[in-house]
Specification:
By secondary structure, the protein is α+β, with helices and mostly antiparallel strands. It is built from two helices and eight strands, in the order H-H-E-E-E-E-E-E-E-E. It has a domain of 131 residues. A hairpin with a 2-residue loop joins strand 3 and strand 4.
Length: 195
Amino acid sequence: MKILTIVFIGIIIAIGSYKDKIIKYQNNLNKEFSNSETSPLTNEDIAVFKELDFYDIDESYNIEAELILNETPKEFGMKTTTKRRPTYIKYGTAKFELKGKSIEIAIYKNVELSKKEQYKDFLFMLFTDNTSGIKSYAGGRYIDLRIPKEGEKLQIDFNKAYNPYCAYNHKYSCPIPSGEDHISMEIEAGVMKWH
């Protein structure tokens, strides 16, 4: 009985620590948005900003994916909401199961950003899903990723999915998900649509 109690307490702590980590992430986003020096919001919106809307934290959206590397990556200009075309490569394809559904989605690497030491292992995933334009931003959402270490899988946490700055202010230029970046299910995790 004592062992079961210890195991149960361990599970509660593990769940709590994950939830705490996501709450901290959400609080940091809210701080960024409420600070006029770092916020993408318009001056009018900053004046009344309280917090972003998030889906309920759901650890089942924190998944490990198999990363299939692109053997012949070619540089291309990613389409954005303006004429700007930042240079990316398709780094690979993430394959994973989510809520009983098999998913494959492209994973990208920003060529210019990867030249900076602190971003050399930085990967980028953008996606639309069946909530896009309804409960989440119509232009899709983003997730920042890191190249997994040898022998490890790619960690994708949809609870950290966030909106591009264009969702809040039209002055920004934001990458647009392609048809290849669509997940044909509802991803009820991360940041919800603004207003």
